[in-house]
Design goal:
- It is a single chain.
- Helix content is about 75%, strand content about 0%.
- By secondary structure, it is an all-alpha fold.
- The protein has one domain (about 15-405): Up-down Bundle (Amino acid/polyamine transporter I).
- It starts with a strand and ends in a 6-residue tail after the last helix.
- GO terms for molecular function: cadmium ion transmembrane transporter activity; manganese ion transmembrane transporter activity.
- It is found in: Membrane.
Length: about 400
């Protein structure tokens, strides 16, 4: 996939704006899945305006995690698993296994979410909606220029979700002044909410989605750093805008004393905001969020194993399609495997500190980075993210593993 051209005058790589936006939106829409909608709704109902502080803290952690990961991947010209194997032989294989297992398990949830989206939007049976959504995702990878189609689909879906969410946020007339005040002076702080948001936004396969996309487009070396910075920050900004819009929409409803439906809290927000038409709007957002997450999870998970055998790289699109088919078949035949999702949810949180920590070590090695010097203003916050997320995700694992045996 050679999508980068050289500038004849400077010799520097030129990459299209579409590729940069595609990488940003791939990362953003991968993180904006069914879980994103539910998490944001539930935490807003619990913390009210103080959830603004959680969003602020999570965005700061997200930015430094993504800027570190994307920059190290692109400057080294190596994928995450290749870098990890150079730091410690076998570590890349271990990381790839975690990514693929997590990506597959969460893709089952994404397929289910897409089915629920079409059910709310068009009244289709959930299973039928899930199958049709999977077929839509598969069609994208049947195109010869699949990466470009994927970029465009992510951008369109992301734009639609943001516009609809902003409309709903305005419709609920939230207390914006209080939200701004509590963002900086919260009355309540939830560490669990911060960890959940960071893990859901840049955890697991999402950590590498944009960086691997840029690498597949041919972007590499220190000359690409400005483009990497722009793309990674844009991805976090898109996620942040969506999160803030949903936060305000929910806050506008719950601040009126309205109780949300615990079985489907996100959908009830849209119903209270727009009446019966709200379910249709929720369906559009849920479907767009889920189907782009299906695409992102499949693409990024396969990018982690395609360097292990030449045939995987040769038939990459067919392997991605197989990944989507397996996810869909598990959902259709077994249903959503709550037990597996519970364990993988905890594992997904610990992937970020392992991955980021490994890449920060790699950033100090000349054998991997050449003469490049990784800046302290990225290294120190990166280490902070590793320590904070490492400790808290281990605590989450300790709490959740016993639940599997009940």
């Amino acid at each position: 996939m050679k999508e980068v051209k050289l500038n004849n005058k400077t010799g520097k790589a030129k990459v299209s704006r579409s590729v940069l936006l595609g990488a940003a939106f791939l990362m953003a829409t991968s993180s904006i899945g069914p879980g994103f909608l539910t998490q944001t709704t539930v935490f807003t109902e619990q913390l009210l305006a103080s959830f603004g502080f959680v969003i602020l803290m999570s965005l700061l952690l997200d930015v430094f995690a993504q800027m570190n990961v994307w920059r190290i991947i692109v400057v080294s010209g190596l994928r995450g698993q290749e870098i990890a194997n150079k730091v410690l032989p076998g570590l890349g294989i271990f990381l790839a296994i975690l990514i693929v297992i997590g990506g597959l398990a969460f893709n089952i949830g994404n397929v289910a979410g897409a089915g629920l989206g079409l059910n709310a939007m068009l009244g289709l049976n959930t299973t039928t909606g899930a199958i049709l959504s999977a077929i839509f995702a598969i069609i994208i990878f049947l195109f010869k220029e699949a990466s470009k189609v994927m970029d465009r689909a992510a951008q369109i879906a992301g734009g639609v979700m943001i516009l609809l969410m902003m409309y709903v946020a305005i419709s609920t007339a939230p207390p914006v002044g209080e939200a701004i005040a509590r963002t900086f002076v919260p009355s309540e702080i939830s560490i669990f909410a911060i960890v959940t948001l960071v893990g859901g936004t840049v955890g697991g396969y999402i950590t590498f989605a944009g960086g691997h996309r840029l690498l597949d487009a041919g972007l590499k070396g220190t000359a690409s750093i400005p483009e990497v910075n722009k793309s990674s920050i844009t991805g976090i900004a898109v996620t942040g805008i969506m999160r803030i819009a949903l936060f305000l929409a929910v806050l506008g409803v719950v601040s009126q004393g309205i109780k949300l439906d615990p079985n489907n809290p996100a959908a009830s927000v849209f119903h209270h905001a727009l009446g019966n038409a709200g379910y249709r709007v929720f369906g559009v957002i849920m479907w767009a969020a889920a189907v782009t997450s299906i695409i992102g999870a499949a693409y990024t998970s396969v990018s982690f194993i395609k360097t292990f055998h030449k045939n995987i790289a040769k038939y990459e699109n067919w392997v991605i399609i197989s990944f989507i088919v397996v996810s869909t078949l598990v959902f259709v035949t077994v249903g959503k495997p709550v037990t597996i999702l519970l364990l993988v949810g905890a594992l997904n949180g610990i992937i970020l500190p392992i991955a980021l920590g490994t890449l920060l070590i790699a950033a100090q090695k000349k054998t991997i980075m050449g003469e490049y010097k990784h800046p302290l203003w990225l290294t120190i916050p990166g280490i902070l993210v590793v320590v904070v997320m490492g400790v808290l995700s281990v605590m989450t694992l300790i709490e959740q593993i016993p639940l599997l045996f009940k």
